[in-house]
């Protein structure tokens, strides 16, 4: 009953599901997007957190079918929201192995087309370190996706060693500022300075700025425009079910 052997059957046994965390427009206070987060509830192992099973899924290659499933499920949900008159972008996390895979373009387009969603409502989140290990073909794929209208966001921005020149060369649309810079932004002058620098860099490159891990009203005050366009975090909502997201949207948030 190793995690690996259980993970092989997780999809066919319907043990995986998605939760969604709202991304909120700082100015209007409205939900404009959701980050899609994978969850696994196994009959023997119980709830296994992604930080435990994603590395196993990466090592075994299972992240490829699981990642395809995540993209399909996210697009299916996006379609349901669109049909209900709710316009909401879905942002899916991409692992290193998915990014390097030669089928990334086909897999992404397949999910988008299966539900006929607007490609502009689909976004990929890629960490700095994954992006820095790109190949020519993975960058070409990003460009093709970007040309279709798919968004590309750099996740955990500020924690890796990204060459700033890449921000210009790559088809990147948004920077998600890592929550380690937001955590103590109200007390630490350096953190505020870093957030301001990232934000002004992003703005001059015409990228959207999203603050992650916003937990308090005080933190949000420090992140009002022009620091950030959108924020995400426990202050507004933890990752939650699609139904709860629909309820929030329907009630006008
Ligand atoms: O809620 P949270 O514990 O979901 O996420 C923990 C980590 O797992 C985050 O770094 C997040 O990016 C990653 N993660 C969550 N869902 C997915 C997914 O569908 N695919 C990949 N590759 N990573 C994910
Ligand atoms: O690495 P990535 O940014 O994809 O992962 C998002 C992770 O951050 C998920 O595990 C999610 O549950 C978590 N998260 C989301 N909002 C908050 C928050 O306000 N505080 C903390 N500590 N974690 C958060
Ligand atoms: Mn993310
Ligand atoms: Na992040």
TrEMBL record:
Q: Where is the signal peptide?
A: none
- In this protein, which residues make up the domain named EAL? 1-253
Source organism, top-level taxon = Bacteria
Name of this chain's protein: Diguanylate cyclase
Shown segment, full-protein numbering:
352 to 604 of 610
């Amino acid at each position: 009953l190793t995690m690996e052997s259980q993970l092989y059957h997780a999809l066919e046994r319907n043990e995986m599901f998605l939760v969604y965390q709202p991304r909120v427009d700082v100015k209007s206070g409205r939900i404009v997007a959701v980050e899609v987060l994978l969850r696994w509830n196994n009959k023997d192992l119980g709830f296994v957190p992604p930080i435990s099973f994603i590395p196993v899924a990466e090592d075994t290659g299972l992240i490829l079918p699981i990642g395809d499933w995540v993209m399909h499920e996210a697009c299916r949900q996006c379609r349901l929201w669109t049909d209900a008159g709710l316009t909401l972008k879905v942002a899916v996390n991409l692992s290193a192995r998915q990014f390097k895979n030669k089928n990334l373009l086909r897999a992404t387009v397949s999910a988008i087309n299966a539900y006929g969603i607007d490609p502009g409502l689909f976004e990929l989140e890629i960490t700095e370190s994954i992006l820095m290990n790109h190949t020519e073909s993975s960058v070409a794929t990003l460009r093709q996706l970007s040309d279709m209208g798919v968004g590309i966001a750099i996740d955990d921005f500020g924690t890796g060693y990204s060459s700033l020149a890449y921000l210009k060369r790559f088809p990147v649309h948004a920077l998600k500022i890592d929550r380690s810079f937001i955590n103590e932004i109200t007390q630490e002058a350096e953190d505020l300075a870093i957030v301001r620098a990232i934000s002004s860099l992003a703005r001059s490159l015409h990228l959207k700025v999203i603050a992650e891990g916003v937990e308090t009203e005080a933190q949000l005050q420090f992140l009002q425009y022009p620091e950030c366009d959108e924020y995400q975090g426990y202050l507004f909502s933890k990752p939650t079910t699609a139904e709860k997201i629909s309820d929030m949207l329907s009630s006008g948030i």
